[in-house]
């Protein structure tokens, strides 16, 4: 009995209703007739959790007994999206819940819309982590996701007079039914203080860390259910709390008020997600967050997951820690510290173990996005870790010098310690030295990583470098988000595709089938109607019927070039206003933007302002006869993505070549039948290879052309001077057409494009406009468009995150599925 898990409730409508009402009564303390929608949502969530519980307990037992190697995914971000729909899908309870609730006079969709998504991530990197843990559970691979339970996730974006204003994301305020706190399993995390040398009983010289303060990490467990396979993995997010030592500590003896303030200080560590996604600021609290969750996670795994008496020399038989970017890289010196200082390992043995337990994924190429922590800050917060990093670096540089005698310049270049602008630790170098493998996230990105970011390292250790192209979970982004397309696919080729996405290939023969095309088109139209009613209710935005739906959704960043999309819109508008073309010549088109800007990123915020001002003007000018519209719903998030992507005709993936590491939105769009207009960048390269040039709108310079132009000297103003259409569009902004005649409002945006344009939007403008003309030509032939659209679905099964996980397993982790 002690080990026997509970059994699942009955898989029947009756059983479900009984469970649901029971949860409503016992959990929410209300009867159905007096319950609020929130009560009903929470009771429904509990009911579904109860169905998963037996499987969760069983998964934990099986995994522990099997003593197999697990994946420890270390990520500062998980952008999970809503949980209920996914849990219903994984348990196959969708129909039963729908019918059961109907019997209670309730509507499942209404309860689902009550859920606030946990937005514990910024964008691509956090969403990727969520897709990966979904795939691992579905593939029966043991994995623990480790991260931070931010009390406030990514800010809620609002617009005031067209400008972005951030509101706190209070995702926990109406209750969070998906988490299981375990305060009894809390762990202590130390900070500050100093180190001292001492001689142990065996006469060995050792070091100990004498920390100055500490906090408690409280684990909150979340279920990660596999799709219909009975496996439920765990996501463990850490929340910071004050320890007893904190309130009673040396700083505040006898001072009650100070003790309470100290508590607040500790809790600050997991208070809020940093909303930057490309420019680390070197903030002390951010480093505290990183060390906090990493220290908790290593402690947790070593204490709990390994049975007593396990020999830590064999740690890599049980775990591989995947470092999601450099954010968790402080785990490397932390494991060294545990092994050497606490477990008494010799340095060299500890290093052998440590090197075999980590692998590192890089998600960027932007130099300013690579984290460097000042040694001053590191030494103050984590003095022992800094010493360990110095020693790792010394030994590494000795190896470099031995391999390249006399090449001191190279040794300097490769040092983990940067000397300018201040002394700091290059976290990417530390990760590369410590990791068994280093991977980029798309073929082009991995190549550039080898050639441009870490060339010395790839020369020294060519075998260390590999690629794993990103992927997305077909459960959330096709099956859940696009139910009618999913039914059509399953009716045509069976339902195996949900866990074996390459089988979408079997749809290829239907691309030319007029009957299938009609159904496919009707589904796109239905998805557009669904989006229309959502945007109307959510934002008061009215989408016109029958438009080409052109969608650009992603974080606002100069390298992603929302400004290029905007110049295209302005140019179309300008041509109609100036009479160069008639409104009736325009392909009816609605452009949808979704984008959050980092709160401190001025240029990004100005661009949001400009998009909103252009939208206001374009949407209300009768000269366009309603044939060009711009919609910018605020607060783009996973929940909105699930409605937007299935409705899109055209997917905008227009970053400057060599800048977007992969992109994952691009994959979601293609899998839902949008055609891509895109540069030769990130995973676009692989999408185009798979779908074929005829079904993809390529434009712009490729990466070598970008490098060449950069080397030769890029001067954006020459494009302005030589291209009348571009000039007219920029002049229109400068002349105040979108700012009631105010010629300064967008001065900085225009000035930047004309005189700097770091991401060469002006250089690619002509080619972009030409590609958009091809889009319109193709869209005019609906049969041809639909055919391409079907082929995009049929040929992009490669981008399932299940495939990414297989690649990680084969190339990096060498773990086994449990069955
Ligand atoms: C760093 C320091 C302080 C605060 C925040 C950060 C930070 C957070 C997220 C920096 C970068 C972050 O994410 C980068 C990111 O999302 N990269 C994207 O990763 C995706 C998944 O691999 C790729 O598809 C995108 O191309 C890439 O931009």
From TrEMBL:
CDD domains: GT35_Glycogen_Phosphorylase (cd04300). It comes from Tessaracoccus flavus. This is Alpha-1,4 glucan phosphorylase. Its cofactor is pyridoxal 5'-phosphate. The modification N6-(pyridoxal phosphate)lysine is found at residue 668. The lineage of its organism: Bacteria, Bacillati, Actinomycetota, Actinomycetes, Propionibacteriales. It catalyses: [(1->4)-alpha-D-glucosyl](n) + phosphate = [(1->4)-alpha-D-glucosyl](n-1) + alpha-D-glucose 1-phosphate. Allosteric enzyme that catalyzes the rate-limiting step in glycogen catabolism, the phosphorolytic cleavage of glycogen to produce glucose-1-phosphate, and plays a central role in maintaining cellular and organismal glucose homeostasis. PROSITE patterns: PHOSPHORYLASE (PS00102).
């Amino acid at each position: 009995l002690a080990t026997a898990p509970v059994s699942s409730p009955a898989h029947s409508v009756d059983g479900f209703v009984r469970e649901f009402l029971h949860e409503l009564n016992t959990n929410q303390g209300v009867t159905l007739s007096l319950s609020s929608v929130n009560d009903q949502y929470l009771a429904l969530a509990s009911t579904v959790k109860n169905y998963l519980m037996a499987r969760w307990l069983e998964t934990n037992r099986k995994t522990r007994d099997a003593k197999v190697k697990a994946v420890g995914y270390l990520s500062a971000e998980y952008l999970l999206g809503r949980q209920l729909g996914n849990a219903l899908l994984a348990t196959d309870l969708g129909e039963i819940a729908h019918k059961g609730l109907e019997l209670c006079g309730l509507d499942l969709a209404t309860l689902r819309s009550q859920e606030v998504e946990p937005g514990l991530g910024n964008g691509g990197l956090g969403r990727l982590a969520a897709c990966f843990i979904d795939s691992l559970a579905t593939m029966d691979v043991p994995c623990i996701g480790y991260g931070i339970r931010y009390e406030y996730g990514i800010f809620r974006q609002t617009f005031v007079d067209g400008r972005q204003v951030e509101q706190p994301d209070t995702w926990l305020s109406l209750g969070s039914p998906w988490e299981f706190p375990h305060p009894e399993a809390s762990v202590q995390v130390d900070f500050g203080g100093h180190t001292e040398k001492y001689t142990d009983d065996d006469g060995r010289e050792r070091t100990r860390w004498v920390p100055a303060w500490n906090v408690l990490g409280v684990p909150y467990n979340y279920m990660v259910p596999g799709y219909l396979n009975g496996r439920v993995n765990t996501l463990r997010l850490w929340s910071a709390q004050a320890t007893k030592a904190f309130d009673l500590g040396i700083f505040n003896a006898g001072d009650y008020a100070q003790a309470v303030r100290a508590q607040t200080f500790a809790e600050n560590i997991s208070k809020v997600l940093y909303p930057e996604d490309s420019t680390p600021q070197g903030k002390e609290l951010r480093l505290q967050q990183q060390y906090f969750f990493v220290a908790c996670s290593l402690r947790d795994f070593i204490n709990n997951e390994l049975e007593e008496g396990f020999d830590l020399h064999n740690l890599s038989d049980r775990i591989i820690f995947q470092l999601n970017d450099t954010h968790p890289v402080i785990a490397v010196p932390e494991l060294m510290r545990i092994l050497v200082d606490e477990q008494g390992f010799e340095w060299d043995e500890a290093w052998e173990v440590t090197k075999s337990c980590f692998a590192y994924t890089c998600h960027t190429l932007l130099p300013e996005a690579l984290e460097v922590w000042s040694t001053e800050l590191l030494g103050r917060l984590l003095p022992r870790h800094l010493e360990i990093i110095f020693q790792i670096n010394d030994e590494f540089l000795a190896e470099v010098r031995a391999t390249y005698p006399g090449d001191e310049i190279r040794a300097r270049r490769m040092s983990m310690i940067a000397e300018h602008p201040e002394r700091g630790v290059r976290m990417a170098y530390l990760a590369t030295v410590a990791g068994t493998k280093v991977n980029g996230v798309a073929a082009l990105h991995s190549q550039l990583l080898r050639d441009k970011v870490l060339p010395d390292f790839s020369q020294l250790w060519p075998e260390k470098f590999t690629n794993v192209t990103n992927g997305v979970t077909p459960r959330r982004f096709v099956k859940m988000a696009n139910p009618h397309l999913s039914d059509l696919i399953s009716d045509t080729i069976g339902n195996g595709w949900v866990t074996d996405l390459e089988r979408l290939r079997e749809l290829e023969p239907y691309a030319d089938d007029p009957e299938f095309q009609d159904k496919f088109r009707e589904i796109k139209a239905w998805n557009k109607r669904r989006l229309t009613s959502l945007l109307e209710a959510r934002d008061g935005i009215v989408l016109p019927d029958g438009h080409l739906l052109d969608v650009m959704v992603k974080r606002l960043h100069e390298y992603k070039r929302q400004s290029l999309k905007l110049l295209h819109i302005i140019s179309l508008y300008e041509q109609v206003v100036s009479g160069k073309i008639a409104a009736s010549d325009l392909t009816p088109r609605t452009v949808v933007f979704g984008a959050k800007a980092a709160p401190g990123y001025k240029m990004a915020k100005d661009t949001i302002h400009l998009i909103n001002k252009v939208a206001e003007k374009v949407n209300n000018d009768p000269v366009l006869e309603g044939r060009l519209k711009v919609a910018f719903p605020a607060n783009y998030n996973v929940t909105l993505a699930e409605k937007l992507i299935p409705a899109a005709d055209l997917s905008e993936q227009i970053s400057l070549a060599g800048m977007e590491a992969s992109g994952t939105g691009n994959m979601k769009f293609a899998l839902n039948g949008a055609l891509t207009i895109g540069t030769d960048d990130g995973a676009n390269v692989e999408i185009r290879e798979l779908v074929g040039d005829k079904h993809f709108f390529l434009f712009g310079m490729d990466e070598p052309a970008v490098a060449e132009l950069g080397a030769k000297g890029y001067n954006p103003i020459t494009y302005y001077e030589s291209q009348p259409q571009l000039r007219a569009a920029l002049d229109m902004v400068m002349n105040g057409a979108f700012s009631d005649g105010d010629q300064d409002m967008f001065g900085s945006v225009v000035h930047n494009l004309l005189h700097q344009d770091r991401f060469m939007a002006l250089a690619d403008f002509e080619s972009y406009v030409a590609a958009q003309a091809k889009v319109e030509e193709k869209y005019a032939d609906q049969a041809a468009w639909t055919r391409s659209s079907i082929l995009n679905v049929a040929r992009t099964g490669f981008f399932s995150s299940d495939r990414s996980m297989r690649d990680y397993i084969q190339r990096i982790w060498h773990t086994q599925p449990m069955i």
